[in-house]
């Protein structure tokens, strides 16, 4: 097991984190033309509603994944990315 100091000295970002971050950015860019950075100034309560909505979509996609014997995780992963983006938006807001 790594010590806390060894963990803090890592000079790279885990590949799994980078992959998800790239997918998040791809999704954000897809909406740039219509929404841009509106998340920075929209009502914080709207983002909280989006968080709940996206969580529900993740749950529904997971149910579909189970129903189809875990054969296609694309929709599930897409919903996870959407949820992660809303979490990122909330985390970066100064009023949150």
Q: Percent helix among the residues?
A: 55-70%
Low-confidence stretches: none
Shape: globular
How many strands?
0
Count of helical regions: 4
Q: What proportion strand?
A: under 5%
Rg, please? 16 Å
Order of helices and strands: HHHH
Task: Give a quick set of tags describing it.
4 helices; 96 residues; mainly alpha
What do you see in this structure?
This protein is an all-alpha fold. It has one domain. The chain is 67% helix and 0% strand. It contains 4 helices and no strands. It has helices at residues 4-8, 15-30, 44-67, 74-92. α2 crosses α4. The N and C termini lie far apart (35 Å).
Write the layout of secondary structure elements.
Layout: H1 4-8, H2 15-30, H3 44-67, H4 74-92
What would you say about this model in short?
The protein has 96 residues and is mainly alpha-helical. It has helices spanning 4-8, 15-30, 44-67, 74-92. The protein has one domain (14-92).
């Amino acid at each position: 097991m790594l010590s806390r100091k060894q963990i803090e000295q890592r000079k790279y970002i885990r590949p799994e984190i980078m992959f998800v971050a790239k997918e998040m950015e791809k999704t954000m860019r897809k909406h740039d033309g219509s929404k841009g950075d509106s998340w920075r100034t929209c009502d914080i309560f709207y983002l909280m509603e989006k968080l709940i909505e996206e969580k529900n979509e993740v749950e529904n996609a997971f149910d579909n994944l189970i129903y189809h014997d875990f054969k296609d995780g694309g929709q599930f992963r897409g919903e996870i990315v959407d949820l992660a983006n809303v979490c990122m938006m909330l985390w970066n807001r100064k009023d949150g």
